[in-house]
């Protein structure tokens, strides 16, 4: 019983193909149209809408090998990676699914046959144990009477803390979504002579390892305390490829299987550690796989959202590299080994190899410099911790200043048996977040807590006005029967022409009305599978079951469409100019402008911006028809449509064609022809984060108005310069040269003035206890010149204290210099502090030079006299 990992993967798919399952590709690590998930964390994610009954499928039986990432939320294995033998951030999930076809009996029989048949995995039956949900009597009977498992080896798992459905054997995808009872199959790594239920429950030394989880999707979790039955029951199974590979390769740790051992041996060549089982080797091996696949799915390192997860995984790996003596940049060099071990995805990864290596190398180079500084500070703080707990302030400082992810700090502290004040860190981070967003206009509360299980038919692609029925109304976070005031409310209809905010496109606005009432729609958002019209009643009242006209603001919609179609042209143009490695990383389409973020590491020149504009405007002048077709996913792939094809499982997709120049999957609204756009103008370019660029642009009349303003500005400038528009550049160049000449002349004169001032001041030097003391009050003098004179006086006088003051418009600035041979007896900082006490000003600095300023100028001569006496006392006491 020894199978290579790649053979196990293929045997699984072959088995289910023989059982009439359609083999579908893995979806992306980026969940499609699902805000509840950061990353794909289970094989069933791509089928969520099918399980919920929101989408139909032609395939009732499906099998996949799904790429998964578990680094947060309900499924977070990051802290366990390397410290246990079975946990990973990235792993492959083998799964078979039934959508209203077979159910418990067949699912259990298939699993048992694959695992135990001599033709397939041939695992000894005596090595397998079963768990079931305590109230799932049907599954228990199948295992006992059909599969003939000894009842002693079938463990019933009940609810925790008496809360219904809160059980390890009642599976849920997240806080909401599909769920149902599950039955799990465990492999026994221990002594077969100690087969007791108590040994299974205690599970000492991880003797029993779960290898397959079979979920019977029967319910939809609406909220923490509410679940409802699904219209169609389904089966969702999951078996970790790495875990089953460990069983079939007769090893107890996933890190000992073939594909991990190749990686670990490669990492060891960079390391000084002689321990082939070192935790850091395992962590690096796990994290390089995650990083490679995340970047392959177009995630780039950043300080937020998915990019932050990638960045912390990379940085955690780099720190462990340092821990095992790796001195050079090594992480990006592991990419080839990952690609060569992942046979199923070889071509996908190989095509992006150079991009992945480049991004990892750049991230490694950037972090290496700060890693040493951060570790030095962390080591110092750990040595000075109180109560064996690192403060939240230190954790936040390391995160905010050095980019240390909190789990990296936690890792280091755990190794030294130090706890972390995570709550303190969270408070500081939330304060920072609040400061960042308190002025953000998009942070309005639109009752996002509302949960509604309903549907709404969108007709806005073809209609701008519909007759609609009010199905639900929400106000102040609860459902109501009617509204009669101007408070912010949400109206849910059966039919609507309003496009809800989605895919970067802002929502429609407009009105809902009949002869008795009018409701102004300010925003439109999706709530589950329905659409909420958010706004305020301006007269009358609206109640449930009222019939209304739903009418969008057509001018607002038209402006959005011009910008959305332009976004497609821009995307295609960027790929034409910068190459096919350019991918969309975010977009915003409004009625006023468009914003497009994309992956690109180099700087963008003004010539390239003009080239982009030229190409887009040429396509606009061509007046190309914009065609929208509904195609099967396979047809869309053949057309080479731009999309994350693996993001979703859908039989029909919406494809936007602008001839063969731009072909994209898109759910947004578009104009009919490119000529409708009129004109395209880029107004800004910037860098959002490492490897991510942003372009903002305007179109149509807005772009023309923008050019008119620029033209008016140029005309005003030419008037101010008293020259013709054609000669503005020459006139400005001449003025700049004249200014530079005058500045040089002023500098020369100032230098001469400084020399004269120094000569005069040298005559006013007095001696205090063997120290040369000099003070001088200037009026309307340049501060920079005072600094220069101070330095020169210190050099000339050798052992001296110099105080220079400048008064301008009843305010003063002061600069104090003390030669370094005096700073142990008296220093500039003390003199400034003494001066500020008497003037109520503010100041500070170092021992040899300090500065300050304030408003109280009337008594400065008197204060200088007092300071002179005080200096004498200080020098006397030091003698």
TrEMBL record:
It catalyses: tRNA(Ala) + L-alanine + ATP = L-alanyl-tRNA(Ala) + AMP + diphosphate. Binds 1 zinc ion per subunit. Consists of three domains; the N-terminal catalytic domain, the editing domain and the C-terminal C-Ala domain. The editing domain removes incorrectly charged amino acids, while the C-Ala domain, along with tRNA(Ala), serves as a bridge to cooperatively bring together the editing and aminoacylation centers thus stimulating deacylation of misacylated tRNAs. It is an enzyme of class 6 (ligase). Its EC number is 6.1.1.7. It comes from the Bacteria. GO terms for biological process: alanyl-tRNA aminoacylation; negative regulation of DNA-templated transcription. Keywords: Aminoacyl-tRNA synthetase, ATP-binding, Cytoplasm, Ligase, Metal-binding, Nucleotide-binding, Protein biosynthesis, RNA-binding, tRNA-binding, Zinc. It holds the Pfam family DHHA1. Zn(2+) binds at residues 564, 568, 666, 670. This is Alanine--tRNA ligase. Gene3D superfamilies: 2.40.30.130, 3.10.310.40, 3.30.54.20, Bira Bifunctional Protein, Domain 2 (3.30.930.10), Threonyl-trna Synthetase, Chain A, domain 2 (3.30.980.10). InterPro entries: aa-tRNA-synth_II/BPL/LPL, Ala-tRNA-lgiase_IIc, Ala-tRNA-ligase_IIc_anticod-bd, Ala-tRNA-synth_IIc_core, Ala-tRNA-synth_IIc_N, Ala-tRNA_ligase, Ala_tRNA_ligase_euk/bac, DHHA1_dom. It is found in: Cytoplasm. The lineage of its organism: Bacteria, Pseudomonadati, Pseudomonadota, Gammaproteobacteria, Enterobacterales. SUPFAM superfamilies: Class II aaRS and biotin synthetases (SSF55681), Putative anticodon-binding domain of alanyl-tRNA synthetase (AlaRS) (SSF101353), ThrRS/AlaRS common domain (SSF55186), Translation proteins (SSF50447). Its cofactor is Zn(2+). Homotetramer. Catalyzes the attachment of alanine to tRNA(Ala) in a two-step reaction: alanine is first activated by ATP to form Ala-AMP and then transferred to the acceptor end of tRNA(Ala). Also edits incorrectly charged Ser-tRNA(Ala) and Gly-tRNA(Ala) via its editing domain. Belongs to the class-II aminoacyl-tRNA synthetase family. Residues 3-709 form the Alanyl-transfer RNA synthetases family profile domain. One of its GO terms (molecular function) is tRNA binding. One of its GO terms (cellular component) is cytosol.
């Amino acid at each position: 019983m020894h199978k290579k990992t790649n053979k196990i993967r293929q045997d699984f798919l072959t088995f289910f193909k023989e059982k009439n399952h359609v083999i579908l590709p893995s979806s992306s690590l980026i969940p499609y149209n699902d805000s509840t998930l950061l990353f794909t964390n289970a094989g069933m994610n791509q089928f969520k809408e099918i399980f919920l009954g929101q989408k139909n499928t032609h395939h009732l039986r499906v099998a996949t090998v799904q790429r998964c990432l578990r680094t947060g939320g309900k499924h977070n294995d990051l802290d366990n990676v390397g410290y246990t033998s079975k946990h990973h951030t990235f792993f492959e999930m083998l799964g078979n699914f039934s959508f209203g076809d077979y159910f418990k009996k067949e699912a259990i029989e298939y699993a048992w046959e694959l695992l135990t048949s001599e033709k397939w995995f041939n695992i000894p039956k005596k090595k397998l144990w079963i768990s079931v949900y305590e109230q799932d009597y049907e599954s228990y009977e199948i295992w006992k009477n059909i599969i003939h498992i000894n009842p002693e080896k079938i463990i019933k798992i009940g609810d925790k803390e008496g809360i219904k459905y809160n059980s390890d054997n009642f599976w849920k995808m997240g806080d909401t979504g599909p769920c149902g009872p599950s039955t799990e199959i465990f492999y026994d790594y221990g002594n077969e002579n100690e087969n007791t239920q108590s040994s299974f429950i205690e599970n000492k030394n991880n003797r029993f390892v779960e290898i397959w989880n079979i979920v019977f999707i029967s319910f939809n979790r609406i909220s923490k305390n509410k679940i409802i039955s699904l219209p169609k029951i389904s089966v969702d199974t999951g078996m970790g490829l790495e875990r089953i590979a460990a069983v079939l390769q007769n090893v107890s740790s996933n890190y000992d299987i073939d594909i991990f051992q190749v990686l670990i041996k490669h990492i060891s060549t960079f390391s000084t550690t002689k321990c082939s089982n070192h935790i850091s080797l395992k962590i690096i091996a796990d994290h390089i796989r995650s990083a490679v696949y995340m970047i392959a799915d177009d995630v780039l390192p950043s300080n937020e959202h998915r990019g932050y997860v990638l960045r912390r995984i990379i940085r955690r790996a780099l720190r462990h590299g340092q821990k095992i003596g790796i001195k050079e940049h090594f992480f990006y060099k592991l990419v080839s080994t990952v690609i060569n071990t992942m046979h199923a995805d070889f071509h996908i990864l190989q095509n992006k190899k150079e991009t992945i290596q480049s991004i990892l190398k750049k991230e490694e180079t950037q972090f290496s410099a700060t890693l040493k500084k951060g570790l030095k500070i962390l080591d110092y703080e750990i040595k000075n911790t109180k109560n064996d707990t690192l403060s939240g302030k230190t954790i936040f400082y390391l995160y905010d200043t050095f980019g240390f992810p909190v789990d990296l700090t936690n890792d280091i502290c755990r190794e030294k048996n130090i706890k972390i004040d995570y709550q303190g860190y969270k408070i500081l981070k939330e304060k920072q977040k609040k400061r960042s967003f308190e002025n953000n206009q998009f942070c309005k509360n639109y009752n996002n807590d509302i949960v509604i299980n309903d549907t709404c038919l969108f007709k806005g692609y073809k209609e701008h006005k519909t007759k609609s029925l009010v199905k639900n109304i929400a106000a102040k976070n609860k459902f109501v029967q009617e509204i009669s005031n101007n408070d912010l409310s949400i109206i849910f209809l059966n039919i609507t022409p309003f496009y809800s905010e989605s895919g970067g496109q802002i929502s429609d606005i407009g009105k809902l009305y009949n002869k008795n009432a009018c409701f102004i729609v300010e925003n439109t958002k999706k709530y589950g599978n329905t659409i909420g019209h958010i706004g305020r009643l301006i007269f009358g009242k609206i109640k449930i079951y009222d019939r209304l006209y739903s009418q969008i603001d057509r001018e607002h919609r038209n402006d959005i469409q011009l910008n959305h179609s332009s976004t497609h042209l821009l995307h295609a143009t960027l790929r034409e100019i910068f190459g096919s490695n350019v991918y969309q990383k975010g977009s915003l389409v409004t009625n006023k402008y468009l914003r497009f973020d994309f992956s690109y590491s180099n700087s963008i020149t003004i010539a390239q911006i003009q080239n982009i504009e030229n190409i887009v405007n040429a396509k606009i002048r061509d007046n190309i028809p914009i065609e929208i077709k509904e195609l099967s996913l396979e047809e869309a792939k053949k057309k080479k449509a731009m999309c994350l094809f693996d993001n979703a499982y859908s039989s029909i997709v919406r494809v936007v064609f602008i001839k063969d120049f731009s072909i994209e999957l898109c759910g947004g609204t578009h104009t009919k022809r490119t000529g409708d756009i009129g004109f395209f103008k880029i107004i800004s370019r910037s860098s959002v984060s490492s490897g991510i660029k942003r372009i903002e642009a305007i179109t149509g009349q807005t772009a023309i108005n923008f050019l008119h303003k620029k033209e008016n500005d140029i005309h005003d400038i030419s008037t101010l310069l008293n020259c013709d528009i054609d000669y503005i550049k020459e006139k400005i160049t001449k003025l700049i040269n004249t200014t530079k000449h005058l500045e040089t002349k002023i500098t020369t004169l100032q230098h001469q003035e400084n020399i004269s001032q120094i000569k005069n001041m040298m005559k006013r030097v007095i001696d205090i206890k063997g120290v040369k003391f000099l003070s001088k009050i200037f009026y309307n003098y340049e501060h920079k010149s005072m600094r220069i004179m101070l330095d020169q006086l210190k050099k000339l006088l050798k052992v001296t204290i110099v105080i220079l003051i400048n008064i301008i418009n009843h305010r003063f600035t002061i600069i104090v210099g003390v030669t370094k041979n005096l700073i142990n007896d008296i220093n500039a900082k003390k003199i400034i502090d003494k001066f500020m006490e008497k003037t109520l000003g503010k100041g500070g600095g170092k021992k040899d030079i300090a500065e300050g300023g304030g408003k109280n100028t009337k008594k400065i001569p008197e204060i200088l006299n007092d300071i002179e006496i005080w200096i004498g006392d200080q020098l006397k006491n030091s003698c």
